[in-house]
Design a protein that fits this description.
2,3-Dihydroxybiphenyl 1,2-Dioxygenase, domain 1; 8-stranded mixed beta sheet; alpha+beta
Length: about 300
């Protein structure tokens, strides 16, 4: 079976990854193990400053859950005195959970220019690196270029573009096979107070013509892979009845995942002590408070609740 294409080409935009921000990486590692996910080793982020050639620590560290399409990142603060570490710590003070949405592109310089022209304020491109262990032994270095905007431009969290330069190192086959049967990342769900304004902002950010209303309170912005689902308080109540918007702003609610066998995924999760809700063709699982967020799992993306209507 041919491996799905991971990276966009030309002007395509993919929903690349989502990130949980956690204060206790050891506990998060334990919980994702219980969920049946293989995780990459703990590594610290590094970036290149100005004209320097040697990367310096960024102040955050991660583990990743690599999927056949996209991935899930788990981030913790390793040094709160750096700008990125300080910002990440402040985000966790709001709530523990989902604080980063990354879209992949082929040409970050072009995206940076387009964002400037459409009223955003992109920061200088950041060249990130992190060491990655190899199946054959030793390690290599994964490399990314990231385009971020000011926090106030996208108050939902750290919403950014990424261009991958080392696909083979990042998506190693040994990390792609999970006991829970989950194979792909799909849409991210964002809860907001004002649906039309936020949907319009995401359309500008993602260079899309307009959102697709799935209902009065749930709108979706489709991408070349995956999409962004924007919901107001009534829409949030439809999708996650026990969730509430924080008093100080929007919330990255959760994300969609695809399973190769939904019945086996449900059985696996129940054996591990979780209680996923079996709904109309999909599972909904609120994750432990130590990692935060809600999973929506389907065998076919048409069965995700915001698509099937």
């Amino acid at each position: 079976m041919e491996q799905p294409r991971q990276l966009p080409v030309g002007e395509e935009i993919f929903f690349d990854h989502i990130a949980h921000f956690v204060p206790d990486m050891a506990e998060a590692h334990r919980q994702f193990n219980r969920l049946g996910f293989v995780q990459t080793p703990y590594t610290e982020h590094r970036h290149i400053v100005g004209e320097e050639t040697e990367p310096v620590p960024s102040g955050t560290a991660n583990r990743c859950i690599m999927l056949s399409e996209g991935y899930i990142e788990v981030i913790t603060v390793s040094d709160a005195t750096t700008p990125l570490g300080e910002r990440s710590a402040a985000q966790m003070e709001r709530y523990v959970g989902l604080h980063l949405i990354a879209f992949s592109c082929a040409d970050p310089e072009s995206v940076q220019g387009r964002l400037t022209l459409t009223g955003f304020h992109p920061e200088p491109l950041v060249n990130l690196k992190r060491p990655v262990s190899l199946a054959s032994g030793g390690e290599d270095e994964a490399s990314f270029t990231v385009c971020r905007v000011r926090p106030q431009d996208m108050p939902e969290g750290r919403v950014q573009y990424v261009a991958h330069h080392t696909e083979e190192i990042v998506w190693q086959d040994r990390w792609l096979h999970h006991g829970n049967g989950i194979v792909a990342l799909r849409d991210v769900v964002v809860g907001v107070e004002t649906l039309d304004k936020v949907a319009a902002r995401y359309c500008w950010f993602l260079n899309r013509g307009g959102p697709k209303p799935m209902s009065e309170h749930v709108w979706r912005i489709p991408l070349d892979r995956g999409g962004v689902v924007v919901v107001d308080e009534a829409g949030l109540d439809e999708l996650v009845p026990d969730a509430e918007l924080p008093g100080d702003g929007p919330l990255i609610v959760g994300y969609g995942l695809l399973s190769k066998d939904l019945a086996k995924t449900e059985a696996f999760l129940r054996e591990r002590g979780f209680e996923p809700e079996a709904l109309d063709g999909y599972l909904r699982l609120s994750l432990p408070e130590t990692i935060g967020g809600t999973l929506f799992i389907a065998e076919d993306e048409a069965k995700l609740p915001w698509i099937q209507g």
